[in-house]
TrEMBL record:
<feature type="binding site">
    <location>
        <position position="64"/>
    </location>
    <ligand>
        <name>Mg(2+)</name>
    </ligand>
</feature>
<protein>
    <recommendedName>
        <fullName>3-methyl-2-oxobutanoate hydroxymethyltransferase</fullName>
        <ecNumber>2.1.2.11</ecNumber>
    </recommendedName>
</protein>
<keyword id="KW-0479">Metal-binding</keyword>
<dbReference type="GO" id="GO:0000287">
    <property type="term" value="F:magnesium ion binding"/>
</dbReference>
<keyword id="KW-0808">Transferase</keyword>
<feature type="region of interest" description="Disordered">
    <location>
        <begin position="1"/>
        <end position="22"/>
    </location>
</feature>
<dbReference type="InterPro" id="IPR015813">
    <property type="entry name" value="Pyrv/PenolPyrv_kinase-like_dom"/>
</dbReference>
<comment type="subunit">
    <text>Homodecamer; pentamer of dimers.</text>
</comment>
<comment type="pathway">
    <text>Cofactor biosynthesis; (R)-pantothenate biosynthesis; (R)-pantoate from 3-methyl-2-oxobutanoate: step 1/2.</text>
</comment>
<comment type="similarity">
    <text>Belongs to the PanB family.</text>
</comment>
<keyword id="KW-0460">Magnesium</keyword>
<feature type="binding site">
    <location>
        <position position="132"/>
    </location>
    <ligand>
        <name>3-methyl-2-oxobutanoate</name>
    </ligand>
</feature>
<keyword id="KW-0566">Pantothenate biosynthesis</keyword>
<feature type="binding site">
    <location>
        <position position="103"/>
    </location>
    <ligand>
        <name>Mg(2+)</name>
    </ligand>
</feature>
<dbReference type="Pfam" id="PF02548">
    <property type="entry name" value="Pantoate_transf"/>
</dbReference>
<keyword id="KW-0963">Cytoplasm</keyword>
<dbReference type="InterPro" id="IPR040442">
    <property type="entry name" value="Pyrv_kinase-like_dom_sf"/>
</dbReference>
Length: 286
């Protein structure tokens, strides 16, 4: 968090007058319980963090997608813990009230519990309030160890980009009955291990809906249909800054928006009202 650096855009959306109270895990759960959708976007720097906070985005993700978006790599694999710490520090300075999540990069937790704890401590000391890690099965004891040590965890299942070479590309996951079963089992395991949040990436809408209905925490979808508890996109994709071909689940929120702030407000509003994602345009069938 950033008591030393008031966000230059001032207070966010809901009333446009009173500054928003900082989001906590408790408040995020209350939002879920109230049936309101949760809006998340990636942020890699202080200026965008401040803009997103002002636009009323609930959660900021310092995603290891920065390896592709910021650094120009073809995958997230080259991103280091040191780089994630740096970007998390930048985002924390720009943010005031959004819930701040940072990705554990490839190679910073696959070594096991001890390595995952040390890496997570570095991200939390950089200003993260929650760490995110990819994968199911073997991650359950790692998640439990982090949660026991007071580190909130977001799990990430479906298309897990750090496994791109094992998966054979950025392909939809959980399409056949067996892989959908595995996905449901992994979701139950990371939920039981204490992951308060779960990102579901590029999975059939029906599978994401089933997992969301059973999950003890908050599910956030990206290419996972409309029936998760919230949504996330890569900021540069929804602003149409990314020039490479974009996944079908992306909508360009700059279309018709007079400013970046309006584009991001449009995203928050569309997620809250349930108009994004549109199942027909952005969802995937089994
Ligand atoms: N800029 C950016 N946006 C992202 O969403 C993103 C990243 N980078 N980097 C890490 C991963 C990689 N992601 C990707 C990359 C490609 C597809 C893609 O080409 N999807 C196809 C469908 C594939 C299929 O049907 O199996 C699509 O049309 O959506 C999806 C997600 C999501 N993440
Ligand atoms: C796409 C989201 C979920 C992510 O992990 C990232 O931006 O790195
Ligand atoms: Mg990531």
């Amino acid at each position: 968090m950033s008591a030393d650096s008031p966000a230059p855009y001032g207070a966010p959306s809901r009333s446009d007058s009173a500054p928003r109270k900082p989001l906590t895990l408790h408040r995020l759960r209350a939002i879920r319980e109230a049936g309101e959708k949760i809006a998340m976007l990636t942020a890699y720097d202080a200026a965008s963090a401040s803009l997103l906070d002002a636009a009323g985005v609930d959660c900021l993700l310092v995603g290891d997608s920065l390896g592709m978006v910021m650094q120009g790599h073809g995958s997230t694999l080259p991103v280091t813990l040191e780089q994630m710490v740096y970007h998390t520090q930048c985002v924390a300075r720009g943010n005031r009230s959004a819930w701040l999540i940072a990705d554990l990069p490839f190679g910073s937790y696959q070594g096991g519990v001890e390595q995952a704890v040390a890496s997570s401590v570095a991200l939390m000391q950089a200003g993260a309030q929650m760490v995110k890690l990819e994968g199911g099965g073997w991650t359950a004891p790692v998640i439990a160890a982090l949660v026991e040590r007071g580190i909130p965890v977001c799990a990430h299942l479906g298309l897990t980009p750090q496994s791109v070479h094992a998966l054979g590309g950025y392909r939809i996951q959980g399409r056949d009955a067996q892989s959908a079963d595995t996905l449901r089992r992994h979701a139950a395991e990371v939920g039981a291990a204490g992951a308060a949040m779960l990102v579901l990436e590029l999975v059939p809408s029906d599978v994401a809906a089933q997992i969301s209905a059973a999950y003890p925490g908050i599910t956030i979808g990206i290419g996972a249909g409309a029936r998760t508890h919230g949504q996330v996109l890569v900021l540069h994709d929804m602003l149409d800054i990314t020039r490479s071909p974009k996944p079908r689940f992306v909508r360009n929120f700059m279309q018709g928006a007079p400013s970046l702030l309006d584009a991001v407000r449009g995203y928050v509003e569309a997620v809250k009202q349930g108009t994004f994602p549109d199942e027909a345009l952005h969802g995937y069938a089994a």
